[in-house]
Amino acid sequence: MNIKYATTEDITAIAEVEAECFPPAEAATEEEFIERIRYYGNHFWLMYEAEKLIAFVDGFVTDEADLTDEMYEKAEMHNENGAWQMIFGVNTLPAYRRNGYAGELIRRAIHDAKQQGRKGLVLTCKEKLVSYYAKFGFLDEGVSEKSTHGNAEWHQMRLAFNNRKLQNK
To answer: Distance between CA atoms of 58 and 67, rounded to whole angstroms?
Structure first.
């Protein structure tokens, strides 16, 4: 497996994986990925098996402490010097799930954020995934009041570096 950052050459593959992993109301489009990669391709962690994209994690950096729906829509809000690494999506093709690939990418995002001097990472997830992200050190802050992306209920989770150790599990 090879992990790399995103370039414009990856856009079609990223959009295809996203479409397989999220319902249409929640999935980003190819056009949105064009903008996201333009602004923060170095905050996409892509896992390839040979020439096939099998999983990716993406999100931008901001000084805002909470993830909002506006962030999904406006790639230009990215601030490379921001305090918080937001995670917008954790995607693994169904045939490749339960092999630890997403976990490897999450750990890589955590490592990069720490190396870059961020305060930590923030993501939102559905209730059934709260315990999964807790294994990486994320704390559940409850149902988000700032994100109803795709008309769904999301829990905001935060991994703050100033008060916790990174976990490798």
So the answer is: 13
